[in-house]
Specification:
six-stranded mixed beta sheet; 28% helix; hydrolase; alpha/beta
Amino acid sequence: MKVGLAQIASTSSKQENLSMLSAAVRSAAADGAEVVVLPEFAMYNLPVPDSSFVEEAEPLDGPFATRVHGVAAREGVVVVFGMLESVGADRAANTIVVTSPADLSVTAYRKIHLYEAFGASESTLIQPAEDLAPVLFDAGGLRFGLNTCYDLRFPEVARRLVDEGADAVLLPASWAPGSRKEDHWSTLIRARAIENTVYYVGVGQAPPISVGNSMCVDPMGVVIAQLGEQPGVMVVDVDAERIAQVRRVNPCLTDRRFVVNPA
């Protein structure tokens, strides 16, 4: 099946972001995508997060998600996008929503690992997920697992998704720039794909807020598609037979001698 990667540069204007999202989804659908992935904070973003992250948060059935569902219905695709979810007065949730032509909310994943590194403190404005269970959904005969940005640095997150049958892991992100950060992004995505023998799809915000560099890596660690610094859309094939082929050559999942358990 085909998966679309939609790298946009979200702003503080929800309407502008919705327009960018809609155009990107339309482009990916025209190229045959059945699932289209957008970045973390696709709904609302700032160069430096502030209290508006909480003030602008919405429920999962709020105006923005409802309009994205309308885009999914119009284009006939599953849309995966990041939003700020209202969960309380003091902090929001950093949530990835999956919406389909039929269902407003197929599922939602609230970010587990908040970005408390490289001088950042995401927990000031964002509430971490309380439910640590893996979140997956099915589309086009394949199973997709979800994680978000900083989760990439924790290999057990991807391994638990694979233990639940994920064929591909989708990683919406807003990977902040900094020393060696772009190298970390590409290296870690390839590592997660190789060690789990799955496709890994990382979709980031375009610069300057993020490093961009959205990419899809196959189960052997081959980068099969990659965007650079500009907003853009690309569509890739995610092939179940390729996964099976790689796992026949590299049976590391069946050779391992222990499993990852949740804390």
